[in-house]
Batch of 3 targets.
Target 1
Amino acid sequence: MSSIPNEFRGVTAVTKANVYFDGKVVSHSILFGDNSKKTLGLIYPGKFHFGTDKAERMEIVAGDCVVKLDGQSMEGTYAAGQYFEVPAKSGFDIEVKSGICEYICSFIS
């Protein structure tokens, strides 16, 4: 379990949403003073594949999801307070079976 933040102070929020899969995945970018970036998002029920350029840490804020990293045969289930990491130049399948999964995506250098 990790300590998922409740809020971020002193950031710039980008108002234009990142919309994927016909609105079934939506996020907003937040920019920090140190030039780092995170996205805060929602995933509605469905199964989706994402590719990564940079390495990512996906922290689950609410709800749950099933994840399979590219190149792996095992799936993992993640719920609020848990996270998974995705290598750079890779990808993952994520499935939300019901409800809404809320997440924080951090881009790892």
Target 2
Amino acid sequence: MSTPSFANVTVDAKANIYFDGRVVSHSVHFADGSKKTVGLIYPGEYHFGTGAPERMEIIAGDCKVLLDGTTQVLEIKAGTHFDVAGNSGFTITVAAGICEYVCSFLS
């Protein structure tokens, strides 16, 4: 699996920091107006709410995910993704190591 890279973008140098620094990301802005975040999730369990629909691509490490309104825990490994509906949320659990991700905001 190749690691994604992005050309001709603007990156916010200021980090998005959540859960006392256990989840950290940077926003990436594309010329067409779309946005992604790239980040790291350290071991722990975290809940995130969504406004717009999102696609979370796991590029390194692994995690478990429980989408709001569901009961099935998804096991997500590097090279795979999960989608989250808008105005919803998910709980993500990283047991060990660091989980790296790219989050795309879908329209």
Target 3
Amino acid sequence: MLNFVLCDDNRNILNRLEKMLESIFINNNLSGQVVFSTTNPDNFLAYIKNHPFDIVILDIDLKSNLSGMDLANIIRKRNKKAYIIFTTAHLEYMMVAYKYKTFDFLAKPITIERLKETIDRLFEDISDETNSFFKFGKRKEYINTNNIYFIQKQGKKAIFKTLNKDLELYSSFSNILNHLPKNFVRCHKSYIVNLNKISYIKSNNTIAFNEDLDGQCYIGPKYEHLL
């Protein structure tokens, strides 16, 4: 599931944008959700500091001491891979906005047809980003690999543990590892762990993460040398 975060100074525009996005997700069977929207740039920054996100849609002129480009600059310092989409009624900002590795630029008023074109291209682009996003089988469902803490084998199912929820997939560990970046290693016959999420190893050979998660991730004796 891809997480979208929105910021625009006009609440009516935000509400309309949310409804258009939800309609596009549902009608095209796309795994996306709007997890946060705000008219306040400070609230936006507070949210992205503490929550996972994949795509941000920013109005450039926020009628605040912070512009959409200021927010994009902050995002880029923290996250090189997030997708940034700008919206504005001021076309003269377009060329300047692309310096922030902008995925697209939507002129206001935004139509659902134009927005759908952008979302379709975005999902196509993500499908090619094999190191950054994991695709669940033939479904149009993706997860940012940075959001995965560990993967647990339960029978024929693999349970992907994230901060917000668990995701399930019927697949072998060998196949899953072939589609994950190198910071994922097998640490137990029933567990794969994201090395970037490990805080420390407990004395009982369980892994402590930098966030509280539901469930435990264990280290098997034959895998200790990999960590």
